[in-house]
Write a structure and sequence with these properties.
Layout: H1 3-16, E1 20-22, E2 34-36, H2 38-57, E3 62-65, H3 73-78, H4 81-84, E4 86-91, E5 98-100, H5 101-127, H6 133-139, H7 141-162, H8 166-175, E6 192-195, E7 199-201, E8 211-213, H9 219-223, H10 226-232, E9 239-248, E10 263-273, H11 278-294, E11 303-307, E12 317-325, E13 328-339, H12 341-350, E14 356-358, E15 363-365, E16 368-375, H13 376-387, E17 388-392, E18 398-402, E19 413-417, H14 424-435, E20 441-443, H15 449-459, E21 463-467, H16 469-474, E22 476-481, E23 487-491, H17 495-502
Parallel strand pairs: 3-9, 19-20, 19-21
Antiparallel strand pairs: 1-2, 4-5, 4-6, 7-8, 9-10, 10-16, 11-12, 12-13, 13-16, 14-15, 17-18, 21-22, 22-23
The chain binds adenosine-5'-triphosphate.
């Protein structure tokens, strides 16, 4: 199945089973804004919980924070966002479609990379076990030519972005003969800078002084509270502050479901370190964060690191963790070494001292920061992508199953009386009541048992517990496991233990 088809199926499935709805659908929808439905909100909460625990609960030197979305407007002047939180946009005059100029160029690079990959695959097939990929990449003339092209394009793009030379960016698009992916037209406007922050108004005067921004990242809430937390928590460097919250960006291109939204949620952690140790901590957090993803049980080949070609104005090192979404490998999380850029900027702007006195080295300094910043919605989409499975079953029937890691599954167990009579519902209710205070459970007595199993497969419920006539006699039930569909007969008192064992998180 083409990746585009899979993506469409995932989006349709997410709607049909109450995971994700278009915002304001009743009013024909609001672009790039989404609502999470009854199962979506459970999955989202479980992801948040997993992240929060792995940061705040498992690390004794990381504490949490919940800063307001509204902040003093000068925060965004001081942080550089008012001047520099821009994306370069370009319009196609024929299709009237708008694009991010840098993304058009990156997509072009990806095409060349695919050509290289094709050559590599062909050669591997030809040479079999003896194939030396590194040697092939270094000697095959066509591959060398493509690689040189990529290096050259990247260099021109990064130069243009760093110098904010929008003419050079447009020239590059023209030189590469990049066409509109929708219409094929090469009739482009000039490139313009576009600030991504949403503005709103506080108070009733309507004057410029009341202008506020909706935060485009949660990180600044942490920076402006650095002193509060450090002092009141008596925190010693190195330490971290973690936060989960909404962020808002007026994205130029927002056509990829919950991958790129205008209102989204971030899970960010700023780790404050002694200057000079930031590279070590950067490596530490890179490794830790990749492990966090792998501990969900999703295969490692779905992830890769990507080093930034162009560093943001505040960073001295930056890597992304990319995930293979249906539209290809894309950023899921950023790990950035932000130096003392933000704290120093706020110190300068406010004239207030933001310093840490380090007793171990007997000196004061503005701490350096290593940040891990992950999109909650993108993690959600990564999970849906990895989980969605269509299976052909014996006998020719089919099922759609969401192989969501059990500890994140919206519902942990469904309690299903085989029939709606003979005292089975009452017995099933008893079991439901004994489990529901510890685990998210779901009770259902309508429809055939087969249909009920399918619905639970479709939302990723790891266990179905079926109560039948034998249950009334010997207090046993059948427990059906989602992935294998295997059914076992077990005593009622063993159910809770089996669920607990299955949803334990690997560490
Ligand atoms: P991109 O290059 O895709 O625009 P970014 O580099 O601007 O992303 P960051 O500023 O590093 O993103 O934000 C950290 C994380 O927040 C990203 O890795 C991503 O998971 C998430 N994120 C950023 N923008 C969006 C968005 N518009 N919708 C959903 N998640 C987002």
């Amino acid at each position: 199945m083409a990746n585009e088809d899979i993506f469409k199926k995932i989006i349709a499935h997410a709607k049909e089973y109450g995971f994700v709805f278009q915002s304001s659908e009743l009013f024909d929808g609001l672009a790039a804004v989404y609502d999470y439905g009854q199962y979506g909100v459970e999955l989202k909460k479980n992801i948040m919980d997993y992240w929060w625990k792995s940061m705040v609960q498992y690390h004794e030197n990381i504490v949490g924070l919940d800063a307001a979305i509204f902040m003093h407007p000068n925060v965004w002047k001081s942080s550089g966002h008012v001047d520099a939180f821009n994306d370069p946009l370009i319009d196609n005059k024929d299709s009237k479609k708008r694009y991010r100029a840098d993304e058009l160029i990156e997509d072009h690079i990806e095409k060349i990379q695919n050509k290289i990959q094709k050559e590599v695959n062909k050669a591997r097939k030809k040479f079999g076990e003896d194939f030396d990929e590194a040697k092939f990449r270094g000697t095959q003339p066509r591959v060398i030519k493509y690689t040189e092209q990529i290096v050259d394009i990247k260099k021109r793009m990064v130069d243009a972005l760093e110098k904010e030379d929008l003419k050079a960016l447009k020239q590059l698009i023209e030189d590469l003969e990049i066409s509109d992916p929708v219409s094929g037209s090469k009739n482009w406007t000039d490139v313009r800078q576009f600030n991504l922050m949403f503005a709103t108004q506080m108070g009733t005067t309507g004057e410029e002084t009341g202008k506020l921004y909706l935060r485009p990242e949660t990180a600044q809430g942490i920076f402006v509270n650095y002193l509060n937390v450090q002092k009141t928590g008596r925190m010693k460097i190195p330490f971290g502050i973690a936060q989960i919250g909404k962020a808002f960006r007026n994205e130029i291109v927002a056509r990829q479901f919950i991958f790129r939204m205008r209102e989204f949620e971030q899970m960010e952690m700023q780790f404050f370190v002694r200057p000079g140790t930031e590279k070590e901590w950067f490596e530490y957090w890179k490794e830790q964060r990749m492990q966090w993803h792998l501990n969900m049980g999703i295969a490692g080949e779905n992830y890769r690191f990507h080093e930034h070609d162009k560093l943001a104005h505040y960073a001295n090192a930056a890597f992304d963790i990319e995930f293979e979404f249906p539209m290809g490998f894309k950023e899921l999380e950023g790990i950035h070494s932000r130096t003392d850029y933000d704290l120093s900027a706020h110190q300068k702007f406010t004239g207030k001292k933001i310093q840490y006195y380090d007793n171990e080295v007997n000196t004061g300094y503005v701490p350096y920061v290593v940040e891990t910043s992950i999109g909650l919605d993108r993690t959600f989409l990564a999970l849906l992508t990895a989980a969605y499975q269509e299976e052909k079953l014996e006998g020719g029937s089919e099922r759609v199953m969401m192989k969501i890691p059990p500890f994140l599954a919206p519902v942990k167990a469904a309690i299903l009386p085989l029939v709606k009579k003979d005292g089975l519902p009452e017995k099933a209710r008893e079991i439901m009541d004994s489990l529901k205070y510890d685990y998210m459970c779901f009770y259902e007595e309508k429809d055939t048992i087969g249909k009920r199993y399918r619905r639970m497969d479709a939302i990723g419920t790891p266990y179905c517990i079926t109560v039948d006539h034998q249950t009334l006699e010997d207090n046993t039930v059948t427990i059906r496991e989602r992935d294998s569909m295997q059914q076992d007969r077990i005593p009622i008192e063993k159910i809770a233990g089996i669920i607990a064992e299955r949803i334990r998180v690997k560490r």
